[in-house]
Amino acid sequence: MAACLAAACPAWAQGVQAAEHALGAGDACAKDLEAMPAFLMENDAGARELLPQRGEQSMAAALLKARSEAAQIADDKACLALLNSYLKHWRKGHLWVSSSPGAEAQAAAAPGAAPASAATAPPAPEPASGARQPTLRLLTPRTLVIHLPSFSPQHRAALETLLRKQRAALLSRPNWIIDVRDNDGGADSSYAPLLPWLLAEQPVSVGVEWLSTPANQRAHEQICARYAPGDAACVLFAQSVLAALRAVPSGAWARVQADRFVYERSVVPEKRRPQKVAVLMDRDCGSSCEQFLLTVRQGLGVKLLGRPSFGALDYSNMRPFTLPSGRRDLWYATSRSLRLPQLPVDAFGVLPDILLPELQGPADAAAELQAVQRWLEGGSLQRLPGTGGGKP
């Protein structure tokens, strides 16, 4: 960590400096923990803004607690859990630690070491028949439901195929339910095939700005070769961001697009679209799922129903930084939305147009879907007796 005057350093930073001398360099988990605060303050798009909100004393206490627990860590699985728990003090979403590629092999080679937790590593690609593929179900001659459990890029082709094969059903049903209640996010491009059906009006989009630092430039240089080899679109996008970052001083914010607001249509609307669209949402909808909500709610025939979303969209475009141990990557945000400060999402999530009761289980989820179907067809949103009532 760069040196700073004791009087000028925040409390947590002084603690990190002291720890760098006090802790043994051989403790890999402790080394990784100590590296994170200073790195985030310099490179994460949200850290400098969020620290005053969290409070320096609170953050210092969180670091001290994590440091004492790190001294007792016995394996990589426990270390991942500890580091991710500590990062929740910074931001609840779009900030995590995962095993580095090849870390499992390193862990297996270490005497007495346990393998890293699969739950904290980036998700492995699903097979084409994976359970999180998009599905379409015909409920009545007037209503259908499209279930979108994920916006992972690997599911875009499946959505395109689904819409093409079911075109006759899509054209004949005036009422659509789009269910994203358990959507785990992914990439904005994955839901693009749906937009011509939902947006007849010209949408308004708000851009992002990128924090320029040497580490962030290196991350953008490496991201495509590391995680999307051979992807020409990834390379083109990364190059445009890099050009913007290199054009401003370190620590400054850069924009790929000069305008904050963009008024342009990126898709040609379908000539025959659904008359009424209900988007079912919940607290599991985060990241690209939330961007989907912000986009489609601009359609005049679209309503959002359910509960507030997760709240992980203000700071995004995640990039990995290999921590000192070499066994773990810190994934952090390199951009912030130009919606801020007028329209934050992380604090409260995207709010539904119509708030619905909390769900208590699968029966409640099915009853909620049935109620929304009745509502679209002219009935009540109230769940019928015996179909699950949820919390009042």
From TrEMBL:
UniProt-listed Gene3D superfamilies: 2-enoyl-CoA Hydratase, Chain A, domain 1
InterPro entries, per the entry: ClpP/crotonase-like_dom_sf, Tail-specific_protease
Region (Disordered): 107-134
Pfam families: Peptidase_S41
Sequence ranges assigned to domain Tail specific protease in this UniProt record: 143-354
Regions annotated as coiled coil: none
Name of the protein: S41 family peptidase
Organism, scientific name: Roseateles flavus
